[in-house]
Write a structure and sequence with these properties.
This protein is an all-alpha fold. Among the domains are: 58 residues, no CATH class; 126 residues, Annexin V, domain 1. The protein contains eleven helices and no strands. Helix 5 packs antiparallel against helix 6, helix 7 crosses helix 9 and helix 8 packs across helix 10.
């Protein structure tokens, strides 16, 4: 942007016309440029602000004092609120002679009244109202007396309603306490029942472990007996059926004969039975219809590791 106060450049002069010719006229735009430069160099007259009116001063001062008063009032109310809420106590630092003067006396009376319990505060309010009503009644005004009675009745109704609410609340709390006691007794009964069930389940688990150990011991002995008969069964399968039948006729234990015949092929067993005594064959056939059960174990102190793990897991889950 060009400086408006830059010095104006002199206008360039046209060269002189040769003799015998008319001089050339200067261009008009050059004159306009010189006028614009002259106008830009001229000083600008800025109007000076006039004096402030008295009304504006009065309004501004009034607004300032109003805002100042509001600020001081807010500071005072904040100090009273902090002292009333016991966040920043300063009322005990005020001299005794100042506490009896207005408006500090009214604040101390307000704090003393609202720091009382609810019942005492209601009683104090009732007492004050009663004193005020007595003064009004003593003045001889019938209208004020009627008004005082109406207000006293309203306060009595208020106190009565508060007492009814208090009694109702007490009744609700008593009912809740009874319900809690019932629930507690029910929980105690459930705990006792669970303890009894746990004892019975522990007993059953121990019995089951003992029976399982006995069954496993019997199974082990039964398998040992089966292994002992295996060589005899192999010999019976290799012999002639007639010779084996004569040998088995001499064996008095029919159960042993049945166990031996179980180890040979069905065709070999049929041939051996055909050559045996018919009466003995009938006894063996009866044994085949009612096979012998596993022998009852006598040693119950042995408990397999798998059953021990099962019992420990069940007891841990019950606890």
């Amino acid at each position: 942007m060009a400086d408006p106060k830059a010095p104006a450049q002199p206008a360039r002069q046209q060269p002189a016309a040769p003799p015998g010719q008319r001089p050339q006229k200067q261009d008009k735009p050059a004159d306009d440029v010189e006028k614009a430069i002259t106008a830009a160099d001229a000083p600008v007259n800025v109007p000076q602000p006039g004096p402030v009116s008295k009304l504006y001063r009065v309004i501004s001062n009034l607004a300032f004092f109003i805002l100042l008063g509001l600020f001081l009032g807010m500071v005072g109310m904040t100090a009273l609120a902090l002292d009333f809420l016991d966040l920043l106590q300063w009322r005990y630092r005020v001299p005794e002679e100042w506490r009896a003067k207005w408006p500090i006396a009214a604040y101390y009376d307000f704090v003393r009244l609202h720091q009382l319990p609810d019942e005492q505060r209601y009683q104090e309010l009732l007492q004050r109202e009663k004193q005020r009503y007595d003064e009004i009644i003593g003045s001889g005004s019938v209208d004020l007396k009627r008004r005082s009675e109406s207000l006293e009745t309203s306060y009595r109704e208020l106190v009565r309603s508060q007492e009814e609410q208090f009694r109702k609340r007490q009744e609700e709390l008593r009912t809740q306490q009874e319900d809690l006691l019932k629930e507690r007794r029910a929980l105690d009964d459930q705990k006792a029942d669970l303890a009894t069930r746990k004892e019975s389940i522990d007993l059953i688990s121990r019995q089951l472990a003992s029976e399982a150990a006995s069954l496993e011991a019997s199974m082990i002995r039964f398998m040992e007996d089966e292994n002992r008969l295996k060589p005899v069964q192999d010999i019976a399968a290799a012999m002639e059926p007639t010779a084996m039948a004569r040998i088995l006729d001499e064996v008095s234990d029919n159960s042993l004969v049945f166990q031996i015949l179980k180890g040979v092929t069905p065709a070999q067993s049929a041939a051996i039975l055909a050559a045996m005594d018919p009466e003995k064959v009938g006894k063996i056939m009866k044994i085949s219809q009612n096979p012998p059960t596993l022998p009852t174990g006598t040693d119950k102190s042995y408990l397999p590791q798998s059953l021990q793990n099962l019992v420990a897991t069940s007891q841990a889950n019950l606890r």
